Protein: Mg-protoporphyrin IX chelatase
Organism: Rhodovulum sulfidophilum
Amino acid sequence: MSLPDGIWTRVEIGLNALAVDPAGLGGLWLRARSGPVRDRVIEALPALPLPLKRLHPSIGDEQLFGGIDLTATLSSGKLVERAGLLAEPAILVLPMAERTQPGLAARLAGALDQGTGHCLVAMDEGAEPQETLPEALTDRLALHLDLDALPWGQTERIAMDGDALAAARARLPGVRAGDKVLEDLTILAVRLGIDSLRAPMLALKAAKALAALAGNDEVDQDDLSAAVQLVLAPRATQFPEEEPDEDEQPPQDPPPPDPDPEQNQNDQDEGESQSLDDLPLQDILLEAAKATLPADLLANLAAQKAQRAGGGISGAGAKRKGNRRGRPIPPRRGRLDTGARLDVISTLRAAAPWQTIRKRESSFERSLHIRTDDFRIKRFEEKSDRLLIFVVDASGSAAMTRLAEAKGAVELLLAEAYARRDHVALVAFRGEAAELLLPPTRSLVQTKRRLAALPGGGGTPLAAGLKTALELAIQSKGRGMTPTVALLTDGRANIALDGTANRTMAAEDATRMATAIRANGYPAMVIDMGQRPERSLKALAETLGAPYIPLPRADADRLSTAVSAALDA
């Protein structure tokens, strides 16, 4: 089965292949916003040969694996259990899949690995590149489809022939593939930068499903090309390297002329009808993969590099677990003397299996026996507010220029603070010490008032500025914030922590403060505002484990854009 051009054509063929072998292919990762385009894919899911079951990103273990039916147990006096969603093979539909927590991802991945017949359809609604499905699931789902850029006019109703799908499922166990097909798929995956061995195996299963759909008992070249486009191409992390040109290879002696032209013609005819094993299959599959490589592959790779360099900073701050407020997460055993809130239902479920034994052993007549080991405490998860600490160099002749840029950047970022839940603080260092000019705030009026009369000039106590930022970061983290340090300087530190003018000691003190910031796990970024990039400042960024951003002669708009890009990466 060949695969014509067009995203929607790949969607249709991919869903038909999934309907043939849902358990073997694992499922579908569908990246698309809620809308009519995605609804057309959802309308085709009932054609899959398994019941549909919807999950929630915060679903608990009891709903997944089953547990005690509390009402039936208490009314009958006997332990009554109920089955979970994973008890029988099903199509597990997971909306808002980009919010899947690592724990749920691990449980679903384990269910797919057990080979119990489950198939996962992950509806990824992420708005940003970093909002995506956990890798533990994307690695196990054969089909990856991105419909964000697909207009409604290029879609149509997906045709799913029930009789043809049933015949293909009956034919699937007898479909064969060549001995070297899996080897060629594995080599192609390596050339595309895919480091998972599951990908070529899923591609082979997809090719067999496509062959069964076409009514064939053996996988052919078209089936493999279509499987590569459906399974391997969306996973590519690099453009495949080109093979060396023929003129770069060592020269070889020309073959002797054939004395029999008729025999030569016969050999050519035989070459045109050679079998699949004799064709250059890797080259054919490579061209098929190149035809459907993501158009934004380079942009995605750049975003991933920025995310690694920025320490995975997110716009909403770090996640915290507590027992007061936030999104509910599964309860845990605990004690009530800590001020925690009791989860009554979970406590009763924990106590129910032991009621018969406890009634027999107890000397008191009670309808319900609960012990401290049964207590289950409610838990919640919330995201903390992010604090962006600007550490601004206010020294030297160019101080007023840098301060004006910092003021403008802070005001621009504060305009977005309400939507991004950011707080901003400002530390200025000049002369012999550093000063906290603006404590953490989201007030634009207060920020302008504090920045208006900020003076400049004097030495460059870089270490003092970093020390003040570290102390503020520690305090803000204790108050539930997630601090990030943004250093704006030209890198010419000349004042040590003790206030003496000693460049060597000043550099050592700055390195020690940067090491302390990194040891405490605070993300940072270093913005070089000098006329030319400073080597010592780049080395300081490496000590901080932070991205180094040289921005000579940057205005407030460029500075704000650079900081936002580093934070969103």
User: Anything to note?
Assistant: The first strand starts at residue 27 and ends at 31. The chain has a mean pLDDT of 77. The radius of gyration is 31 Å.
